[in-house]
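#onboarding

Welcome to the new folks! Below is a worked example of what a typical request in this channel looks like: someone posts a single protein sequence, and someone else replies with the predicted structure as tokens. Don't worry about understanding the tokens yet, we'll cover that in week two.

Example request:
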Amino acid sequence: MDEFLSDKEQAERLKKWWLDNYKSIAAGIIIAIIIIFGWRWWQHRMQVRSLTASAMYGQLGSMLSVNNGPPALKVANDLINNYADTPYASQAALAMAQYDVGTQKPDDAMQMLDWVIKNSKDDGLKLLARLRLARIKLMVGDPQAALSALANVQPGGFAALYDEVRGDAHMTLGQTDKARVAYQRALNEWTPDMGDKSLVQMKLNDLVKGPVTVAGKPPVAGTESGATKP
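Example response:
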């Protein structure tokens, strides 16, 4: 029994135990230190990247506010290519898409929105990108592609807006019965925080009176009532 060992014998046993185990103990301490400092380094790196991306996004917004497109595009591409792990990359792509629509560059806008759909980690931003993509598809005269952009997804809080665009697409295709169903569904799903629903009601009323063509171009990016904007 250990309690009957002499001090010398206990010291010898402790020394032997240390010689047998010191390497594994030292290795464990080193690994723990590496993990702790590695985690702190990673947190610091991510914080720095997020702050840098945030500053770049602010710069992008300032450029777009004065219609300074080419340098804004350069900043947006930098965010997309080098900071895709931050939310600012998707927000930059959405902002550039909205600018591209306003400057009559729908193809560039659709490319930006497609990137968000495929790469964003934010489901809400992906749903918003799909909605805006469908509107642009309608604007360029491709209602079937607009319907495809909204297919096979759960729209969540965008349900009413998705159905309004579906109604516009069906109207363009001459599918008045499907348009009527889509507009009615949009009205049923509309919530007060989404703003005025009178335009959707007008479209449905026109269908009740008789088949008509949806007047004007469909709304484009940046007009989603109640949607979170970048």
